[in-house]
Specification:
- By secondary structure, the protein is of the alpha+beta class.
- It is built from 4 helices and 9 strands; from the N terminus they run ββαβααββαββββ.
- A 6-stranded mixed beta sheet has the order 6-8-9-4-5-7. The chain has a 3-stranded antiparallel beta sheet with strand order 2-1-3.
- β8 and β9 form a beta hairpin.
- The N and C termini lie far apart (about 65 Å).
- The model has no long low-confidence stretch (mean pLDDT about 90).
């Protein structure tokens, strides 16, 4: 199969970020990437303009890192409390999942993707559990989730 080198204009999942020079199949480049404006052909002229794209990428990545650090500081201070009905031995009827944690974060005004919440298995016991939230490749927030018993009065 024939391949072609292209310079990416934007981040494409599974392929690379902007300003990356990647080899792709010719059909993918000619029929999708170039016509959609997602990439340039890697000609000598375009390779000379690569520095501008790399500068824009560095600026965007620095901004994303700064935003992730700010959000991590807010999440580190946030302590969500969940109330579950508990049976004997502190075992919960139901559980706290990453979806529940995401909803609590959104209620507090913090937008986080559910897949960023690193929860191995649902929380099914009372007490405090440390949950990591991966906001960026270099930034991970620590969230302490507290599960309390639901009293009969509630």
């Amino acid at each position: 199969m024939a391949t072609k080198e292209v310079i990416l204009r934007e981040k494409i999942e599974g392929l690379g970020a902007e300003a990356d020079v990647v080899k792709v199949k010719s059909g993918f480049a000619n029929n999708f990437l170039v016509p959609q404006g997602k990439a340039y052909e890697a000609t000598q002229e375009n390779l000379k303009n690569l520095e501008d794209l790399q500068a824009a990428r560095a600026e965007r990545e620095a901004k994303e890192l700064e935003e992730a650090q700010k959000l991590a500081n807010k999440i580190n201070k946030f302590k969500p409390v969940f109330k579950l009905e508990l049976g004997q031995g502190g075992k919960a009827f139901g559980s706290v999942t990453s979806i529940d944690i995401q909803k609590k974060l959104e209620e507090a005004g913090h937008t986080v993707d559910r897949t960023a919440i690193q929860l191995d298995k649902p929380i099914k016991s009372s007490g405090e559990t440390k949950v990591e939230v991966k906001l960026h490749a270099e930034v991970t927030a620590k969230l302490f989730v507290k599960v309390e018993a639901l009293s009969d009065a509630e």
